Automatic annotation (TrEMBL):
<keyword id="KW-0804">Transcription</keyword>
<keyword id="KW-0805">Transcription regulation</keyword>
<dbReference type="Pfam" id="PF12833">
    <property type="entry name" value="HTH_18"/>
</dbReference>
<dbReference type="InterPro" id="IPR018060">
    <property type="entry name" value="HTH_AraC"/>
</dbReference>
<dbReference type="GO" id="GO:0043565">
    <property type="term" value="F:sequence-specific DNA binding"/>
</dbReference>
<protein>
    <submittedName>
        <fullName>AraC family transcriptional regulator</fullName>
    </submittedName>
</protein>
<dbReference type="GO" id="GO:0003700">
    <property type="term" value="F:DNA-binding transcription factor activity"/>
</dbReference>
<feature type="domain" description="HTH araC/xylS-type">
    <location>
        <begin position="166"/>
        <end position="263"/>
    </location>
</feature>
<dbReference type="InterPro" id="IPR009057">
    <property type="entry name" value="Homeodomain-like_sf"/>
</dbReference>
<keyword id="KW-0238">DNA-binding</keyword>
<dbReference type="InterPro" id="IPR050204">
    <property type="entry name" value="AraC_XylS_family_regulators"/>
</dbReference>
Length: 266
């Protein structure tokens, strides 16, 4: 049980109690007592899923919230989310994958779209059931990937970019914490730094540095939710310090990493 908080000791804000599991090209974040995130944007496509009851979501350009059990957010689009204190799963899919490309092609007309897909509710229930039963990380990933494959009708994880950029992406995903500058990445695929910079943006939609930060913040959150301190998680993911991690996490997810609590600590 958590240590009681005294009147003189303000309670730390918490926006989710749960787990994070990752795979190459995607991840699933699932938790209960999910709160509200500030306006933010991130590189991956976001699929938000509640079993019941619903959550609220909206893009940053409108004041009108939409109440739903399932929604999808396009990559790099500012939006707001409010879990309303319920259990919600967030499945992130990188747009460089075949599944990501297909999801963008199907939903790019809106920054945020509600999902009314036949068969999605059963798959969502299966994912939530794994979480409630405290299933393995592999089981969480498998259930989340089934949802992605169903919505995209494409293989999960397969790349949809130039083979040279795919090679660099694989390198980053394998070791996001490793020191890797733009010149080093360009050398990996035998390109000049200027040519590599241009090709990377053309294929991914963001800069090499921005993608590296995206990969590192995902690793840091996964490490923190696995039981490491946030200072350790920041250092292990290649951030200068926990403050740098916190700023990056707030920009990409609308919350500080310390607002997340892993299920086993709750």
């Amino acid at each position: 049980m958590p240590r009681p908080t005294s009147a003189a000791e303000p309670r730390r804000a918490v926006v989710g109690i749960g787990r994070v599991a990752m795979w190459k090209g995607g991840s699933v974040w699932i938790g209960r007592d999910t709160g509200q995130a500030q306006p933010h944007s991130h590189h991956a496509i976001q699929i938000a899923l509640a079993a019941t009851p619903s959550f609220r979501i909206r893009d940053a350009s409108t004041e009108a919230w939409q109440q739903t059990l399932a929604a999808i957010v396009m990559p790099d689009r500012p939006h707001l989310f409010d879990g309303c204190g319920h259990t919600v799963a967030m499945v992130f899919v990188e747009p460089e994958t075949l599944a990501g490309r297909e999801l963008v092609a199907r939903h790019r007309q809106h920054d945020v779209s509600l999902l009314h897909d036949e068969g999605l509710s059963a798959r969502t229930a299966a994912l939530h059931a794994v979480f409630e039963a405290r299933g393995t990380e592999a089981a969480l990933v498998d259930a989340a990937q089934h949802i992605v494959a169903h919505l995209a009708a494409r293989p999960v994880g397969a790349q949809a970019v130039d083979v040279r950029i795919a090679k660099v992406l694989e390198h980053i995903r394998a070791r996001p914490d490793a020191e890797l500058g733009l010149a080093q990445a360009a050398a990996l695929v035998h390109l000049s730094p200027s040519r590599f910079r241009h090709l990377f943006v053309a294929q991914s939609g963001i800069s090499f540095r921005a993608y590296l930060l995206w990969a590192r913040v995902g690793l840091a959150v996964a490490r923190g939710m696995a039981g490491h301190s946030w200072t350790e998680a920041a250092q292990q993911a290649g951030f200068a310090d926990s403050a740098h991690l916190s700023r990056t996490c707030r920009r990409m997810f609308g919350i500080a990493p310390t607002m997340l609590v892993r299920e086993e600590q709750a």
